[in-house]
Amino acid sequence: MEEELKGLKSTSSIILVGNKQDLTQKCVTQEEIQQIVEKYKIRYYEVSAKNNVKIEEMFLGLVNQIKPRIERKGSAPLDFKSKGIIFMRIK
User: Fold this and answer.
1) Pick from 53, 58, 85: which is nearest to 69 by CA?
2) What are the structural domain ranges in the chain?
3) Hey, what CATH topology would domain 2-73 get?
4) What are the tens digits of pLDDT across the range 10-20?
5) Which of 4, 23, 35, 88 is such that its CA lies 20 to 30 A from the CA of 43?
6) Is the whole model's pTM more than 0.85, yes or no?
7) Which whole number is the average pLDDT over 35-44?
């Protein structure tokens, strides 16, 4: 994940999402999450798609990061890849 983050433009909108919030056994420690959040100055959302926990909050947070940049550049159609929006799955 670190390599993907290093290659992004400074104008990219990045959030960290931990899915499976409903599970008791976690794959990543809170310390690891906090290190990434602090290092890259990004927001973290722990969500559960199964229980619909914080899904809307996560998407609204990302949209609120993207919207000002889009408004500054005009209302051209969104090309996610060129806007620096990527989706990564961390195992």
Assistant:
1) 85
2) 2-73
3) Rossmann fold (3.40.50)
4) 667 788 888 88
5) 23
6) no
7) 88
- Where is pLDDT greater, at 32 or 91? 32
Per the listing, tokens 């919207």 go with 67
Q: Which long-range contacts (CB under 8 A, 24 or more apart) does 52-61 make?
A: 53/21, 53/22, 54/21, 58/15, 58/17, 61/15
Burial of 15 (0-12, 13-18, 19+ CB in 10 A): middle
Residue 35, number of CB atoms within 10 A of its CB:
11
Mean predicted lDDT score pLDDT of the chain: 75
- Percent pLDDT > 90 in the chain is 7
* Coil, strand or helix at 43: strand
CA nearest 40: which of 80, 81, 7, 74?
7
**Residue 45 forms beta bridges with which residues?**
17
